[in-house]
Design a protein that fits this description.
By secondary structure, the chain is an alpha+beta fold. It is 34% helix and 20% strand.
């Protein structure tokens, strides 16, 4: 695409992260072929069109940070950790650009962000510290720019959920699988949950709207179900039927099928997808088998 013509002044009246990212994407689409954001998103070009003077690796003496934004006059300077994989670098650049564009973020002339700060998408509690909220907002900005909703939603919803398909999408958008899963959770039309775990210990649970409650035992820091496909599989799997009682809190009142899939990563990390296929109701024979499996008679001694 030709050089982008963007101006910070066009976004001066916006203060909300969603309003800023949506306005920016609208302007990019107007200048793009077929009115669509180029994929992978040219995050360097976008930043340089918005008064970012340079984007460079972090100096060796401050490698403990994942990203740094420095302001001098009307210009910004972004630094990223070049020891990180390219998708991580791109997300960090988007994160620092978020700090640059959201008015309340850069009150001084410098922000330094750790890897943890550039990875968090949630902030819980009644009194969330301002610094935590700012970092979460910058992560959402980066995700919304790198995985624009119009283009990304078409890609994830054109086939039934599949972690191998999601991995290919992450490569197409040049983002990490972790960031891709978070965006999938926000934009998917399907009823499912994605669980990230390491050595069978749950690290993150991403549940789409409408998915029923997981068993209360399955939360961050707990072990995945020993009866699950994920606990037994030694390789990647396709979506396979799984008993509701393995994962879910309530009986199968929905009369629908539950599926599970596992996706292997490095160093003991895995991703589990649990998919509720509400397009296919169980027939009466299946329901009878399920009722019998739940029947647990107790006899007096």
């Amino acid at each position: 695409m030709s050089k982008l013509e963007l101006s910070l002044i066009d976004y001066a009246d916006y203060t909300n992260v969603n309003d800023i990212s949506n306005a920016l994407l609208r302007n990019i689409r107007k200048q793009s072929l077929n009115n669509q954001v180029p994929i992978p998103v040219p995050i360097h070009d976008i930043a340089m069109s918005l008064d970012i003077a340079s984007i460079d690796p972090i100096p060796p003496e401050v490698k403990s940070f994942e990203g740094i934004l420095y302001k001098e006059g009307w210009q910004g300077f972004i630094f990223y950790n070049d020891n990180s994989p390219e998708p991580r670098q791109r997300f960090t650049i988007g994160h620092e650009l978020g700090h640059w564009m959201i008015p309340s973020h850069l009150t001084g002339n410098k922000r330094s962000c750790t890897k943890q700060q550039t990875s968090s998408f949630t902030a819980t509690g009644k009194n969330i510290p301002k610094e935590v909220r700012i970092e979460v907002e910058a992560n959402y900005f980066s995700a919304q720019i790198l995985m624009p909703s119009f283009e990304f939603k078409k890609d994830i919803n054109r086939v039934e959920p599949d972690l191998r398909h999601l991995f290919r999408i992450s490569q197409k958008y040049n983002v990490s699988m972790a960031a891709c899963c978070v965006r999938f959770k926000e934009l998917s039309d399907f009823s499912c949950v994605i669980i990230h775990h390491h050595n069978f210990v749950i690290k993150r649970v991403l549940k789409t709207k409408g998915f029923p409650s997981l068993d209360r035992n399955f939360k961050k820091g707990a072990f995945i179900s020993p009866k699950s496909i994920s606990a037994k599989a030694t390789t990647d799997t396709s979506l396979e039927p799984v008993d509701w009682k393995v994962w879910l809190q309530n009986p199968n009142n929905y009369k629908t099928e539950l599926y599970e899939q596992v996706f292997q990563q490095n160093d003991g990390y895995r991703i589990t997808l649990i998919y509720l296929d509400d397009s296919k109701e169980l027939d009466e024979d299946d329901l009878e088998l399920e009722r019998l499996s739940e029947w647990n008679p107790k006899f007096k001694k």
